């Protein structure tokens, strides 16, 4: 009997020493840590409610940075250790930095998240009337399952730039007293043909039309009077005419606030977790920096969801140019800095959904509540589009997370050859920066309401804070 107990004990010890231990995050945290996690997520929910477009997130982030002592930096302006600076590219992308005590030539510690999210953009000529209803034509932005975007309350956020140089802000559908909008769908009674379509074609791109009005302009004659009445209201409210839509960026997004999800309030259901769920922890981590050893830098970029092209996306030179200007005032060259730099590409990954678990390799998938997820590589098929971090760099980050008691996991975006996706990691790695993906697992990614676990959000913050401390 005693011998058996001894053997069992030895087996347990050998297992503990040699095998990976996996455990739910909540079982690895005490009540105080869970309270800190929940408190952190209150700030995150406010961040979500204040930023549903890249412009709004950039503006909100800048307000937070300025409150925290950051100032808008101009190239050529000298910097010293402890300085808190930021730049903003065209109102849609932000780079912020806390200057470290070591020379810049020793490299930076960079976090990079994106602040654009999938949505319905208004077309350039969006307004029309059909069957005495007024509607907006849209063009979807990012990879969406179109059928998910019908029959839910929608808001409209964005800007209209007029020929006189003024820019009108539009933000309607979020207040309880605001009207909302929606994309309609066919009733099941008459959907016999529609339901034969594939899921991808269930709602087609040209069927994502937003209902915006139904009463005519007060006139006995004339056509398109409902459209005219809507334009009259828009003119009275915003001072715009129909041709002003030609130079507008109006984004139709799910209306409403971020909410706790589950009886235990352990999760958050909201629009736009991808990728504000990494942007907010990364922002907070940078704001925590006093004077780090290595200069800490944060990128909040635009256009990731459509491939990072365009002058506010990370394939443009704006980040490189900022670093070049910073290197110049620090008496070094940008390529010297990059070669010594490290980056956490802060973007979401897919969490295992029990209803659709067979798309994952269960041994290499991310789970809700198991902490922030580090992915050595992303991509599709044979790692196409991935930057594949080096073993040495992954080991460094592993050690950092362990030393700082960050709850973390690894994962891949689904089974090999079942699909895939990339992040901005590749573009930063292409600058000769050591880069690895570290982000929050998400359920229902790219849906109007995405789901994350509060523990994972908090652990993303802890990971970024440890990295830039
Ligand atoms: Mn993303
Ligand atoms: Mn995405």
What does this structure look like?
The chain has 469 residues and is an alpha/beta fold. It has two domains: 23-117 and 271-468, Aminopeptidase; 119-254, Aminopeptidase i, Domain 2 (Roll), CATH 2.30.250. The chain is 28% helix and 24% strand. The strands form five sheets. Strands 1-2-3-14-4-15-21-17-19 form a nine-stranded mixed sheet, with helices on both faces. The protein has a seven-stranded antiparallel sheet with strand order 8-7-11-5-6-10-9, covered by helices on one side. Helix 2 (31-50) crosses helix 10 and helix 5 crosses helix 10. It is globular, with a radius of gyration of 24 Å. It starts with a helix and ends with a helix. The mean pLDDT is 97. Bound molecules: manganese (II) ion (MN) (2 copies). One manganese (II) ion (MN) binds at residues 114, 274-275, 304, 347-348.
């Amino acid at each position: 009997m005693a011998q058996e107990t001894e053997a069992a004990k030895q087996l347990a010890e050998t297992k503990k020493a040699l095998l990976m231990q996996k455990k739910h995050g909540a079982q690895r945290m005490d009540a105080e840590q869970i309270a800190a996690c929940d408190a952190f997520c209150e700030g995150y929910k406010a961040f979500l409610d204040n930023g549903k477009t890249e412009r709004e997130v950039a503006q909100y982030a800048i307000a937070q940075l300025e409150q925290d002592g950051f100032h808008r930096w101009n190239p050529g302006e000298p910097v010293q250790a402890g300085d808190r600076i930021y730049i903003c590219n065209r109102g849609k992308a932000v780079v912020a930095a806390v200057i470290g005590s070591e020379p810049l030539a020793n490299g930076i510690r960079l976090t990079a998240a994106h602040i654009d999210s999938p949505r319905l953009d208004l077309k350039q000529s969006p307004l029309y009337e059909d069957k005495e209803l007024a509607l907006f034509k849209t063009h979807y932005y990012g990879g969406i399952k179109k059928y998910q975007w019908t029959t839910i309350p929608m808001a409209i956020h964005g800007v209209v730039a007029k020929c006189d140089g003024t820019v009108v802000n539009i933000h309607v559908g979020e207040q309880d007293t605001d009207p909302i909008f929606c994309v309609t769908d066919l009733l099941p009674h008459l959907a016999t043909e529609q339901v034969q379509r594939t899921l991808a074609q269930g709602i087609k791109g040209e069927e994502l039309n937003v209902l915006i009005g139904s009463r005519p302009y007060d006139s006995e004659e004339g056509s398109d009077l409902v459209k005219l009445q809507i334009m009259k209201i828009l003119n009275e409210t915003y001072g715009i005419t129909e041709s002003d839509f030609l130079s507008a960026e109006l984004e139709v997004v799910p209306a409403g606030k971020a909410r706790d999800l589950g009886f235990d309030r352990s999760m958050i259901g909201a629009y736009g977790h991808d990728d504000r769920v990494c942007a907010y922890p990364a922002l907070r981590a940078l704001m925590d920096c006093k004077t780090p050893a290595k200069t800490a830098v944060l990128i909040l970029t635009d256009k990731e969801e459509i491939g990072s092209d365009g002058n506010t996306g990370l394939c443009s030179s704006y980040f490189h140019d900022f670093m070049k200007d910073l290197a110049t005032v620090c008496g070094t060259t940008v390529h010297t800095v990059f070669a010594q730099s490290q980056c956490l590409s802060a973007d979401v990954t897919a969490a295992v959904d029990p209803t659709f678990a067979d798309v994952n390799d269960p041994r290499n998938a991310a789970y809700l509540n198991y902490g922030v997820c580090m992915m050595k590589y992303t991509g599709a098929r044979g790692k196409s589009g991935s930057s594949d971090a080096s073993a040495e760099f992954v080991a460094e980050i592993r050690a950092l997370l362990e030393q700082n008691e960050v709850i973390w996991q690894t994962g891949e975006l689904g089974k090999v050859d079942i699909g895939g996706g990339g992040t901005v990691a590749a573009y930063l790695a292409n600058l000769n920066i050591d880069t690895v993906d570290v982000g929050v697992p998400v359920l229902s990614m790219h849906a109007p309401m995405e789901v994350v676990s509060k523990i994972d959000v908090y652990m993303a913050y802890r990971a970024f804070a440890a990295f830039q401390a």
